[in-house]
Amino acid sequence: MSFSEKCKNAILSGNISLAEELAQKVLDEKLDVNDAIDAFSLSIRKAGDLFEEGEFFLPELMRSAEAMKAAMTIFEPILMKGKEDRSLGKVVIGTIEGDIHDIGKTLVASMLGAEGFEVHDLGADVPISTFIEKAIEIDAQLICISALLTTTMDGQRKLIEQLKERGLRDKFKILIGGAPVSKNWVNEIGADGSAENAVSAVKLARKLMNI
Ligand code: B12
After folding, report:
1. pLDDT tens digit string along 63-97?
2. How far apart (Å, rounded) are the C-alpha atoms in residues 75 and 85?
């Protein structure tokens, strides 16, 4: 069985210890962490598809998510390692209010941190005002807003609107992301960009900061 198939089995069966074992194997055998994250990400999305098709119910989706998080926790120190001694800029990141999905957001935060950004991760279900106050407080250059639900992505628009109302829009670059986010949505709400995964998010963050 290939590594991706093993990941899929671990995530779809919600087997936390197997997911951890596979992630640890990647580190022990010095395999490519990004490839492994891709394999796990495909697997958790498959769990989402099964949920949508009615094959999975919420408890099963939750168990799959627990297994996914357990694997990502093992990768976190590796993702954070390296370049933390320099700061490319200050970033505020979080998942917007009403939305508890945090796996993708945490990956983006870890990779931005590894790249050398100073990352302030506000967690999930974060009120719009908290994003704005934190960004002002730390004098951030970049605000990253994650939303995984079609119902919560409107929070990304509202956050930008509130910045405009307060005359603060030009003070920050704004990156948005999450599965339902499209280029059209970026244009519609006037964000500075979006990225489909953590690696592209880092590239785009660098570009926006002219690094
Ligand atoms: C895992 C999961 C859960 C877990 C979340 C656990 C956790 N701690 O995060 C649990 C089981 C708790 C859950 C709950 C729910 N979920 Co859910 N969930 C998922 C699932 C299967 C995977 C999400 C995920 O972790 N993907 C893996 C990561 C690595 O990918 P990612 O999140 O997309 O992130 C990447 C990119 O998007 C990007 N990115 C992400 N954020 C950002 C931010 C920036 C700034 C940038 C640049 C890039 C970026 O980079 C990331 C890394 O590569 C998705 C299915 C899917 N296709 O997305 C459904 C999904 C999002 N969930 C869904 C639903 C409906 C729910 C519930 C409402 C279910 C319910 N009835 O209660 C609740 C939501 C409760 C709430 N208020 O938030 C629907 C949403 C449908 C819709 N159109 O809105 C989906 C699409 C499933 C489906 N197909 O029906 N869920």
Report:
1. 998 999 999 999 988 887 755 566 889 999 999 99
2. 20
How does pLDDT run across 96-116, given as a tens digit for each residue? 999 999 999 999 998 898 788
Cα(44) to ligand 1 centroid in Å equals 9
Check if 105 has its Cβ closer than 6 Å to any atom of ligand 1.
yes
All domains in the chain, ordered by first residue: 3-80 (1.10.1240.10), 90-208 (3.40.50.280)
Average pLDDT on 31-44 reads 93
- Pairing of the two strands 173-177 and 193-194: parallel
Determine if the pTM surpasses 0.90. Answer: yes
CB distance 179 to 91 below 8 Å? no
CB within 8 Å of 166: residues ≥ 6 apart:
132
Instruction: Report how far ligand 1's centroid is from the alpha carbon of 136 (Å).
Output: 28
